Amino acid sequence: FISLVANGHVLLEGVPGVAKTTMSKALADTIDADFKRIQCLPDLEPSDVLGNVFVNEKNELELKKGPIFTNILLMDELNRSPPKTMGAFLEALEERQVTIGGQDLKLPVPFMAIATQNPLRIEGTEPLPKVLADRFIMKVEVTYPSMKEEEEMLRLKESEIK
Hints:
- By secondary structure, the chain is an alpha/beta fold.
- It has a single domain (2-161), classed as P-loop containing nucleotide triphosphate hydrolases (Rossmann fold, 3-Layer(aba) Sandwich), CATH 3.40.50.
- The protein has helices at residues 2-5, 20-30, 46-50, 83-95, 130-133, 147-161; strands spanning 10-13, 35-39, 51-55, 61-65, 72-76, 97-100, 103-106, 112-117, 138-141.
- The strands form 3 sheets. Strands 2-5-8-1-9 form a 5-stranded parallel sheet, covered by helices on one side.
- The protein is globular, with a radius of gyration of 17 Å.
- InterPro entries: AAA+_ATPase, ATPase_AAA-3, CbbQ/NirQ/NorQ/GpvN, P-loop_NTPase.
- It comes from mine drainage metagenome.
C-alpha cells in the first residue's frame, strides 16, 4: 500500500505459496481498482504484455491493448521473463506509458506494478537486471507465516468456510 501512495512499484520476493498473488489482488479489491496478472514465462513476448496493432476485417489498423493497461498489474515471477520482455516493462514502470506501433500510450491512473520473484536458489530463476530492479521503490521478502499467524488467518476466514 505504501508503494501506491508513494506512486511507486513494489517487488515481492518469496517461495511459491506464500500468498504474494493473494496480497496483490487484495490491494486492488481494497481500492476498487482494475487488476490484471501477467504470468512471466520464458516464452512471454513483449506483445503479450503491451498489445499490438493489427489489420482488422475492414482493412483498418486497430490497436489491441495488452494486460499492462490496468491500475494494479501483477507481474508474476518477473525474473523468469526473457530479456526482451523485461525491456518492455521498463518504459511502463518509469514513464507510465508504453509505445506500440510508434504511438505513445499513457497507462491508466493510478498505475502500480507489483512484481513477484522467486529466490535465486529456485531452479529457472535469474537475478533481475539492475536497470529493471531500480524501477521498484521497495523490495519485500515474503516468508511463510508462523503457526500463530496461520491460526489467526483461519480464524478470520472461518465464517467464509462454513
